[in-house]
TrEMBL record:
<keyword id="KW-0808">Transferase</keyword>
<dbReference type="InterPro" id="IPR029044">
    <property type="entry name" value="Nucleotide-diphossugar_trans"/>
</dbReference>
<dbReference type="GO" id="GO:0102096">
    <property type="term" value="F:decaprenyl-N-acetyl-alpha-D-glucosaminyl-pyrophosphate:dTDP-alpha-L-rhamnose rhamnosyltransferase activity"/>
</dbReference>
<protein>
    <submittedName>
        <fullName>N-acetylglucosaminyl-diphospho-decaprenol L-rhamnosyltransferase</fullName>
        <ecNumber>2.4.1.289</ecNumber>
    </submittedName>
</protein>
<dbReference type="Pfam" id="PF13641">
    <property type="entry name" value="Glyco_tranf_2_3"/>
</dbReference>
<keyword id="KW-0328">Glycosyltransferase</keyword>
């Protein structure tokens, strides 16, 4: 990859902040090194109480800021930001503010998509701070796997359904097609994103990325894991203090996705079993 190709001008990077200003400085410092102009970076703030700090940081780094009057959730905030982008933008990188980019990460994601018009989304190799792989490229979960994982994950951690649910391709050293890419960091072709209506805002948090990958796949597009692109994931501040409450939100989103994917009266008993299993798992977690 030539040096001139490392700072693409046809991509925007959108991050969503909800009281995440403590992580924005490092994120923005790395993000501006990945694109041609700092104004290609957009912070969408979900009506945070730390907006003054966020304003100061975005001004300091020369990036754009969109302030929402209410918390629209992750997908809703990304959609709002995407709607403001200039028509010269062909790709959108969606990233959590608790990430640090390698300088050529965005260029690798864009180049992989540009090389194949059938690719709608690309995702990087996401690393934890200890150097281990963060699971970010997986298969679309099935109802069977969802029920098995919900029923047995707490009492039989190595059960086959949980292993299937957690399995991903992030140990691969080559590009690979997957069912979905983590919304912690992914690059999506703007035309494809718009063709499916962006993120489904019915997911306030969690599973909006699974749903996006599934809907893109149904249209015949490929979601591609691109290990040459690397980012480091630090961990969310917005949800860390409320992890048990967030588990309920996660499970509600998981149920919504699988119920949408598997409709019909004849599957109602299995959906009921899934709901029961997810509810029981939340109760067990709260007792710990």
């Amino acid at each position: 990859m030539k040096k001139s190709e490392k700072r693409p001008a046809n991509v925007a990077v959108i991050t969503v902040s909800y009281n995440s200003s403590s992580q924005l400085d490092d994120f923005l410092a790395s993000a501006v090194t990945t694109v041609a102009e700092a104004t290609q970076i957009l912070v969408v703030d979900n009506a945070s109480s730390d907006i003054e700090t966020t304003r100061s940081l975005t001004e300091q780094h020369g990036v754009m800021l969109l302030e929402l009057s209410e918390n629209r959730g992750y997908g809703g905030a990304v959609n709002a930001g995407a709607a403001t982008l200039d028509n010269t933008i062909d790709f959108i990188v969606v990233a959590n503010p608790d990430l640090v980019f390698q300088p050529d990460a965005v260029a690798h994601l864009v180049a992989a998509a540009e090389a194949d018009p059938g690719v709608a989304a690309t995702g990087p190799h996401v690393l934890n701070v200890d150097g281990s792989a963060y699971p970010s490229a997986r298969a679309i979960p099935s109802l069977r796997i969802g029920i098995g994982h919900a029923l047995f994950a707490n009492v039989w951690p190595r059960n086959p359904w949980t292993q299937a649910y957690h399995s991903d391709v992030t140990t691969h050293s080559t590009q690979a097609a997957v069912g979905w890419l983590s919304g912690s960091c992914l690059c999506v072709r703007r035309s494809a994103f718009e063709s499916v209506g962006g993120f489904d805002e019915g997911y306030f948090m969690y599973f909006e990325d699974v749903d996006l990958g599934y809907r893109l796949g149904k249209l015949g597009f490929t979601n591609l894991f691109v290990p040459a692109a690397e980012v480091t994931h630090i961990g969310g501040v917005s949800t860390a203090a409320h992890s048990k409450a967030m588990l309920r939100v996660h499970h509600d989103s998981a149920y919504r996705f699988l119920a949408k994917k598997y409709p019909g009266a004849f599957l109602a008993p299995l959906r009921w079993l899934l709901r029961l299993a997810l509810t029981a798992r939340v109760k067990l977690a709260r007792q710990k």
